[in-house]
TrEMBL record:
It holds the Pfam family Acetyltransf_3. This is GNAT family N-acetyltransferase. Residues 23-184 form the N-acetyltransferase domain. PROSITE patterns: GNAT. CDD domains: NAT_SF (cd04301). PANTHER family: FAMILY ACETYLTRANSFERASE, PUTATIVE (AFU_ORTHOLOGUE AFUA_7G00850)-RELATED, RIBOSOMAL-PROTEIN-SERINE ACETYLTRANSFERASE. It comes from Microbacterium jejuense.
Length: 188
């Protein structure tokens, strides 16, 4: 699959470039990004270099589709679809750099990525899953605001560089209204 560039009025979702290595390396020093995402920990500069090299190859396979999120020239995060199965399902994943949190960037980027994921001239997905390490409240709040519906706890299901974690799972269907619904793990 050829890479796609997505835009909002203030953001662009593009492939990472060699000039992004320093920003990726710096952002991925954040304790929350290391705790709640499957990036290597400790995260080294060579990990950022490998990421920049791997993303275009991943797009070719069509299974993992990752963008960096930019505000102008500033890299503020990553977002993508993972485990795209070719049968209408994929999983969304994201992180936002610490200095860009709270500005509505994630929601803006995710709405655009989700729209493209469901669009017939995009991926044509029927279902998008969201999964996160249990306890990742910030990610859960973002997913709920995007209309994802909480579906449950996956015991010891998420495997990452630090071992196994319980995971929360939510889903969004192309036919869903995208209005926030109650989540027992957030509303308790």
């Amino acid at each position: 699959m050829d890479p796609v560039i997505l835009r909002t009025p203030r953001l662009a979702m593009t492939l990472p470039a060699a000039g992004d290595v320093d920003a990726l390396f710096e952002a991925c020093q954040d304790a929350d990004i290391q705790r709640f995402t499957p990036i290597p920990s400790p995260y080294r500069r060579s990990d950022a270099e490998a990421f920049v090299e791997r993303v275009p190859r991943d797009w070719e396979s069509g299974v993992h589709l990752t963008w960096v999120i930019r505000e102008g020239e500033r890299l503020i995060g990553t977002i993508g679809f993972y485990r795209v199965d070719g049968k209408g399902s994929g999983e969304i994943g994201y992180w936002i750099a610490p200095d860009a949190r709270g500005g509505g960037y994630l929601r803006e980027a995710a709405q655009t990525v989700i729209d493209w994921g469901f669009a017939p001239d995009g991926l044509g997905l029927v279902r998008i899953e969201w999964r996160a390490v249990a306890g990742n409240v910030a990610s859960a709040r973002a997913a709920r605001a995007l209309g994802f519906r909480y579906e449950g706890l996956l015991r010891q299901a998420l495997v990452g560089p630090r071992g196994r974690d319980d995971g929360w799972i939510a889903g969004l269907l192309a036919t869903d209204d995208r209005m926030p619904h109650p989540w027992p793990v957030l509303d308790a």
